[in-house]
Amino acid sequence: MNNQSCVPAQLIVGNKEQVSDHVQLVLQEHFCKQVAQGNAPTLGCFCSECKKIKQRQHATIVWISPEKDYTVDDIAIIFDRIRFSLDAGALFFFVLDNADTLTTTTANRLLKVLEEPPTGYFFLLLTSNSQAILPTIASRCLIVEKGDATASQDVWSSTQHPLLIYFFQEDKRRDPFGFEQEIKKQQLSESKTIQLLESLLATFTEHMRKAMLDGDADRQQLLKGRMAHTLKALKKPPQPGSNDLFWKHFFLTFPTEINRGN
């Protein structure tokens, strides 16, 4: 079993065929009888377990494929199921088609369970339109890009805004005066502040993905602190008229060193 297949929440990006093939292989890693005998997963396997996966009839895999945007009713099955603890070593998967159609309401319902799913439960979120994925969803998933899936890069690397570069360039992070001047120049609204924070979170998430793939533990720890810092700010956005103070505090308390206590 590879490290990637053990991640509890994955956002898989690519065209429908690429994504479908990847999902099948991920599921086969856990359930295929040939894999259980030490063989590598293959799309050509038709053992009894793989047939159930291909036909979306496996007892421990729930596929959710709404015809339109997700509703609370569509994801209710997740919460109905995770109320039950699994037997030791047992696994259960939820596969969410067209994750780009998760609404803010349904996404907010899923955030906690994606971040800390009960033992044995896994989530595979699928999309061919990464630009429509909510940053709060992306921040809780390992992003897996299949084939030539490059459309997501504009979303995950939004570091060009004059204010946001202060969080990515070393010389800028040591310039609180320059940051304060930039805040005054931008004259941000509360909604724009939230948008920038979500962009910042999405970029940290992409950096975390790369750090995980590189096995860079120190980088992962630093990014973990920065993601938590940004999430905390998103949970308590600025009140009307307090944007400047909000950003000053966010900048001055921004993690610049690894917190070994986490």
Describe this structure in words.
- With 262 residues, this protein is of the alpha/beta class.
- The protein contains 12 helices and 5 strands.
- It has helices spanning 16-31, 33-36, 48-54, 72-81, 104-115, 135-138, 153-156, 170-173, 176-186, 190-214, 217-235, 243-252; strands at 9-13, 61-64, 92-96, 121-127, 142-145.
- It has a 5-stranded parallel sheet with strand order 2-3-4-1-5, with helices on both faces.
- Helix 5 (104-115) links the parallel strand 3 (92-96) and strand 4 (121-127).
- Helix 9 packs antiparallel against helix 12 and helix 10 runs antiparallel to helix 11.
- The chain starts with 8 loop residues before the first strand and ends in a 10-residue tail after the last helix.
- The model is unreliable at 149-159 (pLDDT under 50).
Topology record:
Elements: E1 9-13, H1 16-31, H2 33-36, H3 48-54, E2 61-64, H4 72-81, E3 92-96, H5 104-115, E4 121-127, H6 135-138, E5 142-145, H7 153-156, H8 170-173, H9 176-186, H10 190-214, H11 217-235, H12 243-252
Parallel strand pairs: 1-4, 1-5, 2-3, 3-4
Strand arrangement within the widest β-sheet reads 2-3-4-1-5
- The end-to-end span amounts to 27 Å
Q: Indicate the percent of residues in helices.
A: 40-55%
Q: Count of DSSP helices?
A: 12
Total number of strands: 5
Order of helices and strands: EHHHEHEHEHEHHHHHH
Low-confidence stretches: 149-159
**What is Rg?**
20 Å
Oligomer: single chain
Shape: elongated
**Biggest sheet: strands, sense, closure?**
5 strands, parallel
Share in β-strands = 5-15%
Instruction: Look at the structure and give the mean pLDDT.
Output: 84
SS content category: alpha/beta
